[in-house]
Amino acid sequence: PLLFPSFIHTQKRNPVTHLKDVDMFWDFISLRPETTHQVSFLFSDRGIPIGYRHMNGYG
Fold first, then answer.
1. What 3-state DSSP class applies to 29?
2. Which residue, 11, 23, 51, 58, is the most exposed by fewest CB within 10 angstroms?
3. Could you state, in order of their start, the residue ranges of all structural domains in the chain?
4. CA distances from residue 54 to 4, 49, 57 in whole angstroms, order as listed
C-alpha cells in the first residue's frame, strides 16, 4: 500500500518530454528488493504458465 503512489508516478508521462519513460519503471523496480524479486519471478519460466492446466488457482 505504501509503494502504490510511487508506482503510479512511474506510469505517468515525463513532464519535460511528455512521453512515456520506461526508465522510471525500471528505476522503481531496481531500488526496491521486494519488487525486484517479484519481477524476476514474473519474467522467469515459472512466472509464465504453459496453459490454464498448469496455472496455480485457489478458489
1. helix
2. 58
3. 3-34
4. 30, 6, 9
